[in-house]
Amino acid sequence: MTRIGFRHTLRAEFTKTLTLRSIQGTLAAALVVPAALALASGLAFDPARGAQFPLESHGFETAGFGQPLVILLAALITGTEYLDGQLRTTLIATPQRGRVLAAKLLIVAGLGAAIGWVAIGASVLIKHAALGAHGLPLDQFTAGMGWNLVGVGINYALIALIAAGINIIARTFIVTLVVLVPLVLGITISLVGVTPLLKYLPDLAGIQLLMPYPGVGVLEPLPGGIVMTLWAVVLIGVAWGFFRTRDTPTS
């Protein structure tokens, strides 16, 4: 009998992921939408009204719009097989459930980070190009902008893992979308001034990895990233236990 290693499982899961049309469409949207928004925002910029945020942050404001698509992508990668009953087939081919789940989570986190770096990196370049004389030329991009971009990739990878954890626990991506998407679209940040404890929720904890939010009352990037990581570790740990022990749905 041929021994199937983690590399083969990862390759199979990656191939399966990229051949699903729903995932292809979501991945394309996650790469294109932030850049399109950056272009529209740059072309509509009115110098007379001034900028709403520092010059170095232009383009990074689109990162918040990419988060819902990253959440949807993670939900589709880890949840589609629950809908069509294919998970049973997958686990017959690879009975080592931990290996299958590890491959899915690695793909989820890797694609999340890659989307952050590619899509938001392109958004920053496009936004400053569209701003013309009001933007920064490429040779004046700062190291802080580079670290901001690194933070976006980390935030996307973590929110993707959090979405995957909720998805596997609930066995449906509807719950994932209902719980997480409203949060990242701004519900909690509008309430954090009234209820400061909201800054520890997974969406707000790492929000300054996307771009600076001075004076709002949220955590700084490093402690925020640590809190967000703890959320991901806890949810993935619970999901790992459920995935390894629960019966496999047939449809």
Work out the count of structural domains: 1
* Number of extended strands: 0
Helix tally equals: 9
SSE series: HHHHHHHHH
Helix and strand composition category: mainly alpha
- Ranges where pLDDT stays below 50 over 5 or more residues in a row are none
What gyration radius follows from the Cα positions, in whole Å? 19 Å
Amino- and carboxy-terminal Cα gap: 29 Å
Sheet having the most strands: none
Question: What's the rounded overall pLDDT mean?
Answer: 90
Instruction: Identify the overall geometry.
Output: globular
Helix content: 55-70%
> Could you tell me the strand content as a percent range?
under 5%
Structure description:
This protein is mainly alpha-helical and 251 residues long. The chain has one domain (6-246). The chain has helices spanning 6-19, 21-43, 63-84, 86-93, 97-131, 143-170, 173-187, 202-205, 221-245. It is globular, with a radius of gyration of 19 Å. The two termini are 29 Å apart.
Structural features:
single chain; mainly alpha; 0% strand; transmembrane helix; transmembrane; membrane; ABC-2 family transporter
Give a concise summary:
This is ABC-2 family transporter. This protein is an all-alpha fold and 251 residues long.
Topology:
Elements: H1 6-19, H2 21-43, H3 63-84, H4 86-93, H5 97-131, H6 143-170, H7 173-187, H8 202-205, H9 221-245
Helix pairs in contact: 1-5, 2-3, 2-5, 3-5, 3-6, 3-7, 5-6, 6-7, 6-9
